[in-house]
């Protein structure tokens, strides 16, 4: 399993305004190539996820998802070409359950960290709600105190 960070070109704040294209691009490749999206959060200019690529090549899978979004976004914007994503992305191999929990927390707290909301539950563009429904987080997690993190996350 991998933690990934994808950032838009020049940090263009385009992802939330085109969240349907983000979801469509991921869903298309989930149908075409079996992989498991464990957790995710989409912000205005970047998104994080934990993914199990299963039998897929991670670099190729990432390229296809980003290309799918870029093509749809450029078409919607009426452009024939243009840069949508930074060339590279950040990846980190999840090494154990502590590492997994640290990255899950980072993903779900990210909208609070960036000042978009005061509680993870208030951000609709993440897997936090699914984790709450499954009893893995309390609904008020991250709302009452600041959460600190150690490590590098590719932002």
Question: Tags for this entry?
Answer:
single chain, 155 residues, alpha+beta, Alpha-Beta Plaits, 4 helices, 4 strands, 15% strand, globular
Task: Describe it.
The chain is of the alpha+beta class. It has a domain at 2-96: Transposase IS200-like (Alpha-Beta Plaits). Helices cover 36% and strands 15% of the residues. It has four helices and four strands; from the N terminus they run E-H-E-E-H-E-H-H. The protein has helices spanning 19-32, 58-76, 97-113, 128-133; strands at residues 2-7, 36-42, 46-52, 90-93. It has a four-stranded antiparallel β-sheet, with helices on one face. Helix 1 packs across helix 2. It is globular. The chain starts with a strand and ends in a 22-residue tail after the last helix.
Write the SSE topology.
Elements: E1 2-7, H1 19-32, E2 36-42, E3 46-52, H2 58-76, E4 90-93, H3 97-113, H4 128-133
Antiparallel strand pairs: 1-3, 1-4, 2-3
In short:
This protein is an alpha+beta fold and 155 residues long.
Largest sheet: 4 strands, antiparallel
Rg over CA atoms, rounded to whole Å, is: 15 Å
**Name of the CATH architecture of the domain at 2-96:** 2-Layer Sandwich
Determine the fraction of residues in helical runs and give it as a percent range. 25-40%
Query: How many DSSP-defined strands?
Result: 4
DSSP helix count?
Answer: 4
- The CATH topology label of the domain at 2-96 is Alpha-Beta Plaits
Strand order of the largest sheet: 2-3-1-4
Unreliable stretches covering 5 or more consecutive residues: none
Q: CATH superfamily of the domain at 2-96, called what? A: Transposase IS200-like
| Amino-to-carboxy terminus distance | 19 Å
Estimated structural class: alpha+beta
Percentage of residues in strands: 15-25%
Question: What is the H/E string?
Answer: EHEEHEHH
**Top-tier CATH class of the domain at 2-96:** Alpha Beta
Compute the average pLDDT. Answer: 92
């Amino acid at each position: 399993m991998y933690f990934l960070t994808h950032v838009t070109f020049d940090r263009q704040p385009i992802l939330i305004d085109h969240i349907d294209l983000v979801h469509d691009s991921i869903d298309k490749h989930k149908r075409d190539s079996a992989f498991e999206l464990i957790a995710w959060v989409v912000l205005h200019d970047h998104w994080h996820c934990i993914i199990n690529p299963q039998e897929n090549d991670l670099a190729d899978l990432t390229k296809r998802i980003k290309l799918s979004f870029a093509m749809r976004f450029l078409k919607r914007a009426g452009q024939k070409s243009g840069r949508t994503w930074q060339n590279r992305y950040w990846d980190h191999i999840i090494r154990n359950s502590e590492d997994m929990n640290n990255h899950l927390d980072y993903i779900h707290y990210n909208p609070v960290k960036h000042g978009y909301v005061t509680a993870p539950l208030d951000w609709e563009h993440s897997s936090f709600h699914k984790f709450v429904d499954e009893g893995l987080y309390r609904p008020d997690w991250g709302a009452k105190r600041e959460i600190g993190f150690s490590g590098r996350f590719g932002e």
